[in-house]
Each structure stands twice: as structure tokens, then as C-alpha cells.
Design goal:
By secondary structure, this protein is of the alpha/beta class. The protein has four helices and eight strands. The protein has a six-stranded parallel sheet with strand order 5-2-1-6-7-8, sandwiched between helices. The protein has a two-stranded antiparallel sheet with strand order 3-4. β1, α1 and β2 form a beta-alpha-beta unit. α3 packs parallel to α4. The longest helix is centred in the C-terminal third of the chain and has 14 residues.
């Protein structure tokens, strides 16, 4: 068991991000076993869930003529337009059936505001609207985080960078993550995390 000030944050291990899903990450389901093995090692365990309304602004099919994976400008900056995924109440938004969620102390949903996307577990993509996770962790006395889940180069990396910016010690378990790697996004994310002082392991 890790020290009581050390939390495991499991990012978006949901059906739509696993093989066969609407926004499948290659080998996304390969993270389930290593994450399940980690759960018993931490005193504080949080899982996040992408949770979009059907009219979400990040869905390409809500922008007539826009192609999935193209980029548009939102009031908060550039936004990748994704295939429709993790719609509230659908099977795609459910956690992977093999993931052990019972040990989680907290499930935090993100991306539920129709007008703004949310990669990070801490802030929406305007980098200002909080999810509430920081306050929860502070109230539990957490100072150090280990992150795992999907996808390395988007939601995991954004969460790790925000956590480091907020002053947490951060480790990303790469053996328990998989990446989308959109136009070199994985290499860029790994470099950004290293530069921010995030420890990359596994």
C-alpha cells in the first residue's frame, strides 16, 4: 500500500476508447489488467469518465461538413473534432467491463458541458473551469499522483500537466496507458510531460 498522500487516477477506461468503440485507441483494452493490479496499492483511488451530451461541440457530426479529426477554433482555442463518443447513458460511455471500479473512492465525470471539451481530469479545455478533482484530493491530504488510462497523448497527458502545474508530484505509468498518436501527438505529449517534471515509468 502506498502512503496515504498518494492517489491513483485512472483516466477514461471506457468502451468507446477500447477496440470496437467509436473512438478506439489501439490496444486500449490492454490497460485494464495492469490498472486492476495497481488498484490495491493505493490508499486513494479515483476514476474519470468522459460524459458528453449528444449535442457536444467537440463532435464532428455537430459541425456540418467537418471531418473527424479536423481542427476548429472554439472560444477557448483550437479544438480537435472527434467522432461521436462517450455519449451520456450509452454503452460506449460505460467503463470497460473488465475494469475494477468498485475500489474507486470517487468517479469524476468530465466533458458534460455541451460548449466545451474536457481532456484533463482537473480542468476543462479553457484551462480555467475546474472539475473539482483538485479540491477533493487536497481534502484527502493527497500530494502525489500516479496516472494511468486512455489516451496517453490527450486525457492522460493533459491531466498530468495540470497536476504538475498545481504542485502535485506526478508519475505516469506508460505500461498502463495507450495513445491515439494523432499526427505525432504522442511524442509531443511525452516531451511536454518530461519538461514539466512528470516521471514517466513502465
Amino acid at each position: 500500500m502506498q502512503a496515504p498522500d498518494h492517489a491513483l487516477i485512472v483516466i477514461d477506461v471506457q468502451n468507446d476508447f477500447c477496440p470496437g468503440g467509436a473512438l478506439a485507441v489501439a490496444e486500449g483494452d490492454a490497460v485494464v489488467a495492469p490498472i486492476n493490479a495497481l488498484l490495491g496499492d493505493f490508499a486513494v483511488r479515483v476514476v474519470t469518465q468522459d460524459w458528453h451530451p449528444a449535442d457536444h461541440a467537440s463532435f464532428a457530426d455537430n459541425h456540418p461538413g467537418a471531418a473527424p479529426f479536423s481542427v476548429t477554433e472554439m472560444p477557448y482555442g483550437p479544438q480537435v473534432l472527434w467522432p461521436r463518443h462517450c455519449v451520456q447513458g450509452t454503452a460506449g460511455a460505460d467503463f470497460h467491463p473488465g475494469l475494477r471500479t468498485d475500489p474507486a473512492d470517487l468517479v469524476i465525470r468530465k466533458g458534460f458541458r455541451a460548449s466545451i471539451d474536457s481532456y484533463s481530469a482537473f480542468f476543462e479545455n479553457d484551462r480555467a473551469t475546474p472539475t473539482g478533482l483538485e479540491g477533493y484530493l487536497r481534502s484527502r491530504g493527497v500530494t502525489t499522483l500516479t496516472l494511468a488510462g486512455l489516451a496517453t497523448d490527450f486525457c492522460v497527458a493533459y491531466s498530468a500537466l495540470d497536476a504538475a502545474r498545481l504542485g502535485f508530484g506526478v508519475t505516469v505509468r506508460l505500461d498502463a496507458c495507450r495513445a491515439i498518436d494523432l499526427d505525432g501527438s504522442l511524442a509531443a505529449a511525452l516531451e511536454q510531460m518530461r519538461a514539466a517534471g512528470v516521471s514517466l515509468q513502465g
